[in-house]
Write the structure tokens for this entry.
Amino acid sequence: MTSLAELECAIATSPSAIVAFSGGVDSSLVAAASARVLRDRAIAVTAVSPALATGELDGARSVAAAVGIAHRTITTDELARAGYRRNGKDRCYHCKTELYDRLADVAREEGYAAVFSGANVDDLGDWRPGLKAAAEHGVRHPLVEAGFTKADVREHAAALAIPSADKPAMPCLASRIPYGTEVDPDVLAQIDRAERALHELGFRDLRVRHLGERARIEVAAGELAAALGAEPRVLAAVGSAGYERAELSREPLVSGSFHGLRTLPVVATT
């Protein structure tokens, strides 16, 4: 059984820290605990780039204010890195290298002793090239140090009334592009428009997978029946983002399962 005290003890071993802060539940719990322990010696930093979905920055700002941690943004330029644009299976390594390079600069210039991530124990068993980048930069993972799983994170976040306690995972927009297809800013913007259109229909947890002129829409299990019941509107919404064809998966969203998906019949948008 994990406890908040264990997390706070892990954080307290550093005199000051930058929290790599997306506003998702994991980094939000680390930020909240850091604010409790380190007070004004902790800061949450959100990276802004074309791969950040619309609304995520506003959400991060709101959570930071709610948990009482100072917040700022930095601009990252992962698209300038050939390894990131190439979009191999190590894409996240190049993305996180860019992020941690920038955070290391802030830490060095302003005297922060550590950089914290929101990685939890469950992440260790997954394909996470970003953890290699973290190790190369000496980034600490307080949730891992305290033995927190994702379920533990959500439980403690809810107990602290953190606004993102039940927030669905929102990986960067590049994760919607198949490995081997170059990451392009125009494609990222198109994916963002399509997902924003679906959010405006009331759906929270979804992905629009970019397959060239075609889009594949995946919706979480709790919302799938509603999406299927509104399929013409769902397809039209994605079509409004510039996709010539779209399909709505009959299977619920499973985060991280994009590659190797079965092909479903394509339904043209009108």
